[in-house]
Amino acid sequence: MACSDTRASDRSRTHRDTPALPFCHLVLKVRKPRDSAYPVTLETLGEHLRARRLDLKLHQREVAALLSVNEASVWTWENNRTKPELRFIPRITEFLGYSPFTLSHSIGERLRNCRLRMGLSQKELAKMLEVNESSIRNWESGRTHPTGRYLKLLGLFCGGGNPSASFMLSFWCNT
């Protein structure tokens, strides 16, 4: 039985190729959800490394080539199975584009972060400064603080050659 209502039959012919709700011009735009492998928080060096790699849309193999290590090393760092050796820290910091070490107000932690950024062990830094390794250990733990000549040397070391008093005060005493 054919439809006898002319209005209904006209509507079916005129709107045949029109999508539903032609008056609604709403466009939904949402960001693509992050990869489930993306770290929730950036607390460890491995989490920083994974986040940067995913941001750059790189594979672990490509990051390994950039850092001159094997792919397994990148995997173990990202999964917090191992920590990178000191000699790789400068390359990792360069890859990240920032220092992943937390800023601290204590002299010891600032010294430790600076030493790690440079990829040096306590023994290597002690040799450079011509002090006992135990002095570096004591400074970093906060048991003692560098003074005089050593404060100036550490300011040069961590300040990239800028021994100004204002820099040393801002580096060591920044609140």
CATH topology of the domain at 107-173: 434 Repressor (Amino-terminal Domain)
CATH level-four homologous superfamily name of the domain at 107-173: lambda repressor-like DNA-binding domains
CATH architecture of the domain at 107-173: Orthogonal Bundle
Question: What's the overall average pLDDT, rounded?
Answer: 78
Instruction: Say how many strands there are.
Output: 0
Overall, the morphology is elongated
**Secondary-structure-derived class:** mainly alpha
Q: Biggest β-sheet: count, sense, barrel?
A: none
Strand content: under 5%
Q: How large, in whole angstroms, is the Cα Rg?
A: 29 Å
Element pattern in H and E: HHHHHHHHHH
Are there runs of 5+ residues with pLDDT below 50, and where?
A: 162-175
CATH class of the domain at 107-173: Mainly Alpha
Notes on the structure:
With 175 residues, this protein is mainly α. The model is unreliable at 162-175 (pLDDT under 50). It has ten helices and no strands. The longest helix has 12 residues, at 107-118. The termini are far apart.
